[in-house]
Amino acid sequence: MINNNHLCIGKQFNYLKSLTDDEKKSFFERSKLIKLKKDEIVFLEHDRLKSLYTICEGACKYTYIDDKGKEHITKILGKGDVMGRRSLITNKGALFTAIAISDTVIYAINKKVILQSLESNNNFCQDILKGFIFDAEDEAEKITYFQNNRKLKIRLAGLLLYLSKKFGTDKKGWLNVVPKRKDIANILGTTSEYLISLLSAFKEKNYVSLTRDSIKINSEEKLLIFINSK
Q: Is the pLDDT reported for residue 28 higher than 50?
């Protein structure tokens, strides 16, 4: 049996408040826990999904391959984010491939119970619509932080602040979720070599501390001053 707390973590819509007792039972009985290792695939671009996925722990990325075979990362998703809603509702193939970027725990909810609740439960329909609004707000926030026309070093600073806000830090201040260096470079549209150079410059200025796999923001205030001074 799936724990209630796991099913209601989706911040894009609150399952439990929207569902009747019978619907809750169906959701619990037809949901399954999936544990993924870093770099494992949740679903592939163009797949017609049979489940709605909620991230319980960890993080995933959305990617697609362009006509030249180059991978592009469009979104980083974390705890509480919902994946696959559009494909489920439209019955079209997924726009992106979803890949775990850390050890990740997700819950998969059967497509049929989702569609049944959409047909019979108006409150649940409204919550699904709110999820699309949440997506739009997140896209706007990304533009504010790092998907803009500013210099690359400014966008890197913005991306680090975005990761801190979205995923949080541990007690010592290290980011809970850090994409691979090549993924960060992909997101910002640069090379891994140049990204490493920029991070080294940030370290010299004591904006950040670095290890091979993690990043610590030493002062969000300094990063904000850096961003606003350019």
A: yes
Stretch among 19-28, 44-53, 80-89, 96-105 having the lowest mean pLDDT: 19-28
Asked if residue 16 lies in contact with residue 7, where contact means CB atoms within 8 angstroms, the answer is: yes
Among the listed residues 105, 132, 130, the one whose alpha carbon sits nearest the alpha carbon of residue 2: 105
Q: Long-range pairs for 11-14 at CB < 8 Å and ≥24 separation?
A: 11/80, 11/81, 11/134, 12/80, 12/81, 12/82, 12/85, 12/127, 12/130, 12/131, 12/134, 12/135, 13/82, 13/124, 13/127, 13/128, 13/130, 13/131, 14/127
CA distances from 82 to 56, 146, 225 (A): 10, 22, 33
Query: Do residues 198 and 184 lie in contact, with contact meaning Cβ atoms separated by under 8 Å?
Result: no
CA distances from 108 to 34, 47, 140, 187 (A): 7, 15, 27, 27
- For residue range 154-191, what is the model confidence (pLDDT) as tens digits? 999 999 999 999 999 998 989 999 999 999 999 999 99
